[in-house]
Amino acid sequence: MTIPFLTIATAKQAELTIKKSRFICSLQRVSSEQAAQQFIKEVQAANRKANHNCFAYLVGDQDQIQRESDNGEPSGTAGVPILESLQMAKLHNVVAVVTRYFGGIKLGAGGLIRAYSNVTTAAVHQAGIVQRIKQLQIAVTVSYRQHDPLLYYLKEHQLTVSNEEYGVNVTCNVLIDEATADQTIAHLRNRFNHQLKIQKMGTRFHEVPYKINN
Which of 170, 181, 184 minimizes the C-alpha distance to 140? Predict the structure, then answer.
């Protein structure tokens, strides 16, 4: 079974206040370690008066690059919990920076671990998760008479139309799952009695919402 490639849907911040300490998690998608480090610097610059700006990130389709930092918190109480929260959600290409403004009450190692973990998880839930799917784009050329039936068929089978071009006929660019492409094309041809002109146009990645509790 293919393991899905998951990442956050959008950049997001979440905040928790625990015993007067503010924990603010800033979450961002990245495509390289350089981008992750740049985001960390930006968050640090925006929170110069904070006591800590702890972080973790995962970069690469197989999480080839993994980094974490406690940034002055007791060893293992910040960076690792942040990283593990991202790993628990099975995310890739994401960086999380948790900024802490100390409230004067010590939380202890256990309290810190829970705080950094919980605020990261909260940010992930607020950001939402998407699954990256590799799809084949096909150009389906159809007569105007069959255009509406084609659109109905595509909607019924939850196939995405990326754009349409109008000329002597109508050409619909349709995204289909690469793994079942030949089967989908065969069904299309049969449904319209081989009156469609279908051309494979290459692959692209498409993102669809993914439920965190899947």
Answer: 170
* 135, 175 Cβ separation under 8 angstroms: yes
What's CA 3's distance to the chain center, in Å? 14
Rounded to the nearest 10 degrees, how much is the dihedral formed by the CA atoms of 28, 29, 35, 38?
A: 0
The string of pLDDT tens digits covering residues 152-206 is 999 999 898 989 999 999 999 999 988 889 999 999 999 999 999 999 999 888 7
What SS3 state is found at 177? strand
76 half-sphere exposure, CB direction, 13 A CA radius: 3
Helix or strand holding residue 21 (H, E): strand 21-29
CA 104 from centre of chain = 36
- Angle, CA of 138, 143 and 146, to the nearest 5°: 90
Main-chain phi, psi angles of 163, to 5 degrees: -170, 170
Instruction: Enumerate the H helices of 12-160 as residue ranges.
Output: 33-46, 79-88, 108-127, 144-156
**What is the token pair recorded at 187?**
């069904």
Rounded Cα distance between 209 and 132, Å, is 9
Q: Does pTM top 0.70 for this prediction?
A: yes
